Amino acid sequence: MKPRALLALLVAATLVIAGLIGWIVWDRFSETRLATLPDDGGSPVTQIVTARLNGASALKVAELTGIVQATAEDTRGLGMLKSGQTVKMPYSVDYFVDLSRLTDADLQWNAQRRTLIVDAPDVRPAPANTDEGRRTLVETSGLFVTRQAGEALSQRTSARAAAVAEREANSPERMAQARELARGAVARLLGRPLTAAGLGEVRVVVTFPSERDGQNREQWDVSRSPGQVVKDIEAREKN
To answer: Where is the composition biased (Basic and acidic residues) (predicted)?
Structure first.
């Protein structure tokens, strides 16, 4: 295979794979419908009021799971009625890398070392998901807990549980772990089509914004972008 065709294939395969991630499902397809599920007596008790299917433009690279505990307090009746609640529930947080933002300028090909360097967008955690259906009541305090107080305590514990889970997901330690998992996921995704295209064993180095300083760039010995190399080869062939 000629160098021009080989490098063109390198650019095309990498960018096409990244771009297709955002179009695995239809983009912004939404619908509104009413579907009912009858109870044992035949009356509709469960229904879907609205549904929306959104296109995905990001690659899921990691998932944080665990158990979170949250506590809330409530005061009513001019301070006379005090109550509290402590609950535990499972939670999960997904981490994504938006590969639809990759362009040719974010890819550098070092032919001598057979290395593709990918300047990827940073990893982003999604909002925390707490499993309300599996929440466990650890403790309730208060001489008399009104219905309104109980509802308020339930809402506050749910909100605090989600906030605690998101704080854990965004901690430096968890973000560092997520970036390492993302590095491997992106390298595998972009490396496989290049190997299948006949480039042999290709090394893929994935970098994130906080890592792209001058020292690291020199260490990786980055050459020109694949697109620029193709243009230079075409120019030489015309002369």
So the answer is: 212-221
pLDDT category at 202 given cuts 50, 70, 90 is: confident
What is this structure's pTM? 0.70
- The full DSSP string for the chain is --HHHHHHHHHHHHHHHHHHGGGSS-TTEEE---EEEE-TTS-EEEEE--EEE----SEEEEEEEEEEEEEEEEEETTTTEEEEEEEEEEEEEEEEE-GGG--GGGEEEETTTTEEEEEPPPPEEPPPEE-GGG-EEEEEE-S---HHHHHHHHHHHHHHHHHHHHHHHTSHHHHHHHHHHHHHHHHHHHHHHHIIIII-S-EEEEE-GGG--HHHHHHHT----HHHHHHHHHHHHH-
Q: Which residue has the higher pLDDT, 29 or 144?
A: 144
